[in-house]
Amino acid sequence: MAQPDIADLIERSAEELLRLWVEAVRADNGITSDGDLSEGGLIDHVPAVIEEICEVLRAGDVPRVNNTRESRVHAYTRFRQGYRARDLIRESSHLRLILLEHVKCKLRFRASVESLGAYHEASRTINLYIDEEMRYAVSIYTEEFKPV
Questions:
Q1: The pTM is what?
Q2: What gap in Å lies between CA 89 and CA 105, rounded to an integer?
Q3: So what's the pLDDT on residue 148?
């Protein structure tokens, strides 16, 4: 199993993963910024984020500024919606955990060195992708409020 195969596993379940993510965000009492968002407002760019993660996995790329555009759009949209920075980080963490758990469950019965290696590489890519979003979020939240 290679990273493109893992991208396929994620893509085939994208709607379910999105539903699980919405449930996790709505159930997280630590996230207070989502209360004013409709379902569509909450979801906004997350399907595109999942799709972009799959593209990065298929290409075997390392997430960088040039291939994580949707994550930056998502972070900036949250900022413009008045989302608190810590809430954005929490919701991004939920997405990370849901994706990693999904891949783990799908590969659970393929206990081989190859599938373990693929899981490790996919996990690394997913983690680095979410980290890129968080780095961008930190920059927009802190630079916006710098004293002049």
A1: 0.89
A2: 24
A3: 44
